Amino acid sequence: VVIHDFAFALLLGVIIGTYSSVFVASPIVYMWHGGKAPR
Fold first, then answer.
1. Which Pfam families match (predicted)?
2. Phi/psi at 22 (nearest 5 deg)?
3. What pLDDT digit, counting tens, does each position of 1-39 carry?
4. Residue boundaries of the structural domains of the chain
């Protein structure tokens, strides 16, 4: 039961981390390209 709860928390953290890093990296890449859309 404890392992199951830990695995669920770990999976939730991976999913949230992936989405948050996508939303954090998008403006950085946009500014890095000088505000113009990448080709």
1. SecD_SecF_C
2. -65, -45
3. 789 999 999 999 999 999 998 888 888 888 888 876 555
4. 1-39
